[in-house]
């Protein structure tokens, strides 16, 4: 009996820790200030990493007034970010981005001066909505 309870506790412990960690990350992401940073990108293919957009930060086209002291904190951000896409959409997204050259922005949550990527916006729409609209208009 004692051994069965010990096994259950041992199996449940990592699940509880993982759940607490995920809830903590979700809380930080939702409670943090959000900022939009303009990016430029392309869609390289990597057999190891899957399909993603590799996005380079474009500070010249970013509205720095959204940051404290109206100054872009370039030192807090990486120069390049990856935004992963469903494999089925990646090739078509690459083609559309090269063809249309739309405004692309990453939404970040700033928590303790650490930027966490939340979402990709294209032409001020969620990437998935923009993508669906582009596919519909081409048909």
General description of the model:
- The structure is a single chain.
- Helix content is 40%, strand content 32%.
- Strand 5 and strand 6 form a beta hairpin.
- It is built from 3 helices and 7 strands; from the N terminus they run αββββαβββα.
- It starts with a helix and ends with a helix.
- It is α+β, with helices and mostly antiparallel strands and 139 residues long.
- Strands 1, 2, 3, 4, 5, 6 and 7 form a 7-stranded antiparallel beta sheet that branches.
List the helices and strands and how they pair.
Layout: H1 2-31, E1 33-42, E2 45-46, E3 50-57, E4 80-84, H2 87-100, E5 104-111, E6 114-122, E7 125-126, H3 127-138
Antiparallel strand pairs: 1-3, 1-5, 2-3, 3-4, 5-6, 6-7
Question: Keywords for this structure?
Answer:
139 residues; alpha+beta; seven-stranded antiparallel β-sheet; 3 helices; 7 strands
């Amino acid at each position: 009996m004692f051994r069965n309870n010990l096994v259950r506790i041992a199996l449940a412990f990592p699940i509880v820790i993982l759940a607490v960690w995920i809830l903590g990350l979700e809380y930080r992401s939702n409670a943090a200030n959000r900022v939009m940073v303009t990016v430029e990108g392309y869609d390289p293919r990597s057999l190891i990493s899957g399909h993603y957009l590799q996005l380079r930060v474009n500070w010249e086209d970013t509205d720095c007034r959204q940051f404290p002291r109206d100054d872009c904190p370039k030192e807090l951000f990486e120069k390049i970010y990856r935004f992963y896409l469903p494999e089925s959409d990646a090739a078509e997204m690459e083609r559309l981005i090269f063809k249309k050259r739309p405004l692309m922005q990453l939404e970040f949550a700033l928590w303790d001066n650490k930027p966490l990527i939340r979402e990709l916006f294209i032409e001020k729409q969620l990437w998935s909505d923009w993508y669906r609209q582009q596919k519909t208009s081409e048909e």
